[in-house]
Give the backbone structure.
Amino acid sequence: MKRYASALLLSVLVAGSTIGQTYVNGPTVTHPTGGFGGAPASALEATLNNVGFGCGGFAGFNNRLADEFTVPCGETWTLTNIRVFGYQTQAAAGPFTTVSTFTGANYRIWSGQPGLAGSTILNDFSAVSQQTGTGFTGIYRVPVATLTNQQRPVFYSDMNANGIVLTHGTYWLDFQIAGTGTATVFTGPVTILGSQTTGNGVGFQGTFVVPNATGSWNNALLSGTTPANTGTQGIPFEIGYTLGGGPTCFVLDISQPGGPGAPLFLSDTGGIPGNTFVNVITLAAGAFPNGWLYGIDISMPELLNSLNAGLPFIGTLDGSGSFLLPPVVLGLPFPITAYYVGIQLNGASVVNTDVPKSVTINP
């Protein structure tokens, strides 16, 4: 979920040497003290329906949820824990319990968005429960009109990270939770008070994932009181990791910082002096960001035409490992969206690539 800032919570795991960190995939608390007994509450927006998404893997259900996270340039993450969240709605008459009802959970890590062409499963721990602990978060998921509702205490499930090591790139965590009895397990989305859209999560065969197509992945939508209020939601999770260094990252950046009509800036940075850069740029979205050429969908004729054109599509990195294109004004009659990725070569060998990105250029 890259649209919202993640939190880094630092704690020393081994004094003076290893630093433990936690990636948080977006907030869930909307009222820090407004819930039952003064507890934190995660409130559904008044203009949205459906309090959560089905994520259960028991009693005939096969619901899963997924969202993305990014390991930054120059970093390596050794995962130490994966924490996901959910609830099982309790009967309105009570009695209510804050003792976790979760009996297991499992997960997979993908190279791209689940369900899209080109996305592959990198780490599959879905066959057997990976749950190592579970408990009450202290948060209640509620309708905004009844902040003190007790029916949906939110529980966490901690899972074994299995020593997974991830280098720079964007990944997707896909998970499933099992609970007691036959009640469906739900996960409330990333929630930001006043926001209809909080991310780009997806769900598989979920009861409240629209459209409800059996056997396929779909956007995690909470339908609204009008179509304009329908928004794709982020899926909350936390990843604990120890931070290590990674290789220098080669980055292609295309931007129009001055706004509409302003010059366009293009730069390649973080490379090795004398290496070759290839900037793959296309206006065809295709299956972006999971296209055939390092995340970009570009036709072979278009790619060959770009390479034959030379700069800024291909060239040699300077003494600082960079290439800077002088600012240019394109004079466009209408906005265009470009999809791009940078590739660094040493001879015919690929050294590394940037993460695929997009930019909208305005006239």
Notes: Residues 248-361 form a domain with the S-adenosyl-L-methionine-dependent methyltransferases fold (CATH 2.20.130.20). The two ends are 29 Å apart (CA to CA). Confidence is low (pLDDT under 50) at residues 1-17, 206-213. DSSP finds one helix and 25 strands in the chain.
